[in-house]
Amino acid sequence: MTAREKNQLSINPKQSKLRKLAQAEDNYEYLKTLPTAELIKQLTKKNQEYVTNLRRILINEGKGEIDNEQAELIIEPLLAKIIAAQSKGETAKQLFGLPPTQLAPKLLSPDEDANPTGKWQYFTITSLAFLAMFSLLAGIYELTENGNLSQAKQIGWLTIAVLAPLMGYLATRYQELTKAKIKQSHLFLWSVMNLVMAGVIIWLLQSPTMQIVNIYLPASLYLVIAIVAVALLILLMRRFKIDHIFFADRKVKNS
User: Fold this and answer.
1) Distance between CA atoms of 56 and 99, rounded to whole angstroms?
2) HSE (CB half, 13 Å, CA atoms) of 58?
3) What's the confidence (pLDDT) of residue 87?
4) Is pLDDT at 186 greater than 70 in this prediction?
């Protein structure tokens, strides 16, 4: 093989990539010329549901100032982007990185940050969710054993107090890494490492040395903590307009 042929082979992949980018750009420009009704027909069922929920929330958030026609005008520029993204296997939620409940305020007030502390909001609700979960499990565990648990098997208050915010932080960080679209292999390795770290922390907290301060609470008190955590969780989710936890896609709540 001559040097010229080798150079052509090395250049071709770059040309192919540039050609695909140009085609994608041309397709996007073409999509922008299509009427709204035609664009909506091209949406996947999941993206149609996203757009429908977004339209409804825009009207509700507009408090009488936004009607269906105005909501359509706000959504119209987004449709071509959504279709271009779905051709790559990306949903509207993945494209914008937000559920309709959080995207709508940003569209209505583009010059304002509608969710300035979103990371801390998510950290708070996930920490509360884990606090409720761990407390409930600890309470049920002690109840089923009828107070016959050995000290080594009891779940101390410090274990729950440390694990709840730790898992809340990891859940928040996981969400950030997912949005950053890092490689799945790297994300899996990161998850495994953190699960191992959490296991080590539990082992240390349950060690005989820590049992002096990491005492267990009565089952009834654990259950009370779980109930309070759930009540705060529901209150803050409504306050922050967050309708999903732990990365699960959910239908938007009816207002």
Assistant:
1) 13
2) 23
3) 84
4) yes
